[in-house]
Automatic annotation (TrEMBL):
InterPro entries: Acyl_CoA_acyltransferase, GNAT_dom, N-acetyltransferase. SUPFAM superfamilies: Acyl-CoA N-acyltransferases (Nat). Keywords: Transferase. Transmembrane segments: none annotated. One of its GO terms (molecular function) is acyltransferase activity, transferring groups other than amino-acyl groups. This is N-acetyltransferase. Residues 9-182 form the N-acetyltransferase domain.
Length: 215
């Protein structure tokens, strides 16, 4: 199976060490780290560990973190060109990250840096994303997340994917709802803490088939 994903505006590539500098810059931005790392500044060593954990997860689980870059438009169509465009995008500016990680869910154990690797057996899989602030409000987070959920349910065969939404992060809640995710459980801190949304495979694939059936 291919782990490179495409949308109308984005190319999604599994993160690699060649993305290290771009990821460090992105994740240390004050508006990005506020919700992704609880406003803690991630170190270069932590970025290295996050990339390595994602690579291990792709090798063992089939999913991890994807770097988002804009797709160039124009030119003739064709699979060969698509591959060439995707390869060219490795040198383009990073616009964000989207990914899946194994996560303990409410009351469970997450990675120490907020993007850590596997927690063990029986955990849920969580979707997470971040965008450069100048790309907010363009629908890119929902576009990338939809591609990853299609991959999660249609390719990997996951049964459920959850999303943890920080209190006050209304835009992320709106994205989860736009994706068709539903409130799942209250957060560990009650109504003022994080909230959790979930999408399940049967509902997701059913809704996608309904969309595809519309002439």
């Amino acid at each position: 199976m291919t782990e490179v994903l495409r949308t109308g505006r984005l190319a999604l590539h599994p993160v690699s060490m060649s993305d290290h500098r771009a990821l460090l810059t992105h994740w240390t931005g004050p508006l990005v780290r506020r919700h992704l790392f609880d406003d803690r500044i991630v170190s270069p060593v932590q970025v290295t560990e996050i990339i390595a954990a994602s690579q291990r997860d792709f090798a063992t689980e089939g999913y991890g973190l994807w770097a988002l870059r804009a797709v160039r438009r124009g030119g003739p169509a064709g699979a060969a060109l698509d591959r060439a465009v995707d390869l060219a995008m490795s040198g383009a500016s990073l616009v964000g990250v989207v990914g899946l990680r194994r996560h303990g869910g409410p009351g469970g154990r997450g990675g120490p840096d907020g993007l850590g690797g596997p927690d063990g057996r029986g955990v849920d899989v969580e979707i997470l994303y971040s965008l450069e602030p100048d790309r907010w409000g363009l629908g890119l987070a929902a576009e990338a997340s939809r591609a990853v959920l299609d991959y999660a349910f249609g390719v990997v065969g996951l049964h459920r994917v959850t999303a943890e939404i920080d209190a006050g992060n209304a835009s992320s809640a709106e994205i989860a709802e736009r994706l068709g995710m539903r409130p799942w459980r209250p957060g560990p801190d009650g109504p003022d803490g994080a909230s959790y949304y979930a999408a399940d495979r049967a509902r997701w694939l059913g809704s996608r088939r309904a969309v595809d059936a519309v002439p």
